[in-house]
Q: What sequence folds into this?
C-alpha cells in the first residue's frame, strides 16, 4: 500500500500577495463562500455587483479593487432571465459600462441540482469548458432538495462545490438565506440551516437591513474581517444598483426628547436645508407627527420652509455668537 504524499512545512508554497484577492477585501482568490442575509436585503444585487466587477476588472461597488478579473458564470434560479439582464444592465451603467462588453455567461437551464449526479457532471463540464474566474449560484435553496438543517445532507453538496473550486481554480459564491428573527445573532451563525454553511466558507458576505440602510459584514478564513459597511440601493429609472452609503448615520433620540426638540436639534446641526424625507429619516419621527411639528415651527417663525427644504431660523443671540 502506497504512502500519502507529505512535505516539510517550510517547503509548503507561499501565496504571492498579488494573487491573494479576487476582490479586495470582499472575496479572496479561489475562495468558496456564502453571500447571506434575510429576504429583501439585496443579496442577489451584491452577487451581481461582484459579477460585473470581476468581468470588467472595475472596482466592486465602485470602491473595492478587482485583482483577478475574468469570465463569470452565473446561475440565477429565482429570477426570470429578463430580470437578470435588467439588473446587470443597471449595475453596468452605474459603473459606466455596457453589458455587451462584459464576459458574464448565464446558465439558462430551467433547473440545476447540485445534489443530482448528472447535473453535477454537467456543471463540472461547463466550468471546465468556460474556465470562469467566478461562479455564482443563487440561491442555495433552489439548488438542492435536501434538509438544510441536517449536516450529513448538506456536507456532501458543499463538498462537491469545494472539489469543483479546487479542480478548476475558481471562486464560488453561493447566495443563501439567513434565519428569520436572527438579527441579534453573529452574522455567520444567523445563516439558515446547518452550521456546515458557515464553516464551509473561505470568504463570506453578510447583509442586514435597518430602515433604508443595508449593513455589509465581511468574514474571511485567512484574512481580517470587516463589519458595518453601509450600503443603499439606488434607483435610476428602471435600473438599480448598490452603492456605499456615505451619509452620516441617523442618531437615536434622547429618551425624554420631544419631537419638536429632536427636529430643532437635527436642523441646527445640518449644514444645508433638509428635505422632508431626509428629516424624517434622521429624526426617527412618524410622518404625521413631523408634519405637525414642522407646521407649528414654521408658523412660529422658528423654521423656514423653502424649495430646498427646511432650515432653522437663528435668534439674534445665536447669530451674534456665530
A:
Amino acid at each position: 500500500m502506497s504512502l500519502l504524499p507529505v512535505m516539510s512545512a517550510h517547503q509548503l508554497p507561499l501565496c504571492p500577495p498579488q494573487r491573494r484577492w479576487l476582490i479586495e477585501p470582499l472575496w479572496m482568490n479561489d475562495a468558496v463562500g456564502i453571500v447571506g442575509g434575510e429576504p429583501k436585503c439585496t443579496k442577489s444585487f451584491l452577487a451581481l455587483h461582484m459579477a460585473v466587477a470581476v468581468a470588467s476588472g472595475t472596482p466592486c461597488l465602485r470602491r473595492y479593487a478587482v485583482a483577478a478579473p475574468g469570465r463569470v458564470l452565473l446561475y440565477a434560479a429565482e429570477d426570470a432571465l429578463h430580470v437578470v439582464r435588467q439588473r446587470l444592465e443597471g449595475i453596468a451603467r452605474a459603473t459606466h459600462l455596457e453589458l455587451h462588453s462584459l464576459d458574464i455567461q448565464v446558465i439558462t437551464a430551467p433547473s440545476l441540482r447540485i445534489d443530482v449526479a448528472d447535473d453535477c457532471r454537467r456543471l463540472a463540464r461547463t466550468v471546465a469548458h468556460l474556465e470562469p474566474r467566478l461562479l455564482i449560484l443563487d440561491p442555495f435553496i433552489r439548488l438542492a432538495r435536501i434538509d438544510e438543517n441536517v449536516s450529513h445532507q448538506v456536507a456532501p453538496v458543499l463538498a462537491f462545490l469545494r472539489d469543483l473550486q479546487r479542480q478548476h481554480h475558481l471562486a464560488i459564491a453561493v447566495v443563501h438565506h439567513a434565519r428569520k428573527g436572527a438579527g441579534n445573532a453573529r452574522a455567520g451563525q444567523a445563516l439558515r440551516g446547518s452550521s456546515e454553511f458557515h464553516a464551509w466558507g473561505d470568504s463570506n458576505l453578510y447583509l442586514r437591513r435597518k430602515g433604508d440602510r443595508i449593513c455589509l459584514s465581511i468574514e474571511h478564513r485567512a484574512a481580517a474581517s470587516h463589519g458595518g459597511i453601509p450600503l443603499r440601493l439606488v434607483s435610476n429609472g428602471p435600473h438599480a444598483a448598490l452603492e456605499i452609503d456615505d451619509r452620516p448615520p441617523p442618531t437615536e433620540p434622547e429618551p425624554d426628547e420631544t419631537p419638536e426638540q429632536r427636529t430643532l436639534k437635527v436642523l441646527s446641526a445640518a449644514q444645508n436645508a433638509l428635505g422632508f424625507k431626509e428629516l424624517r429619516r434622521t429624526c426617527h419621527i412618524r410622518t404625521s407627527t413631523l408634519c405637525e411639528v414642522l407646521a407649528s415651527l414654521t408658523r412660529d417663525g422658528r423654521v423656514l420652509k423653502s424649495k430646498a427644504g427646511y432650515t432653522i431660523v437663528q435668534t439674534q443671540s445665536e447669530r451674534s455668537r456665530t
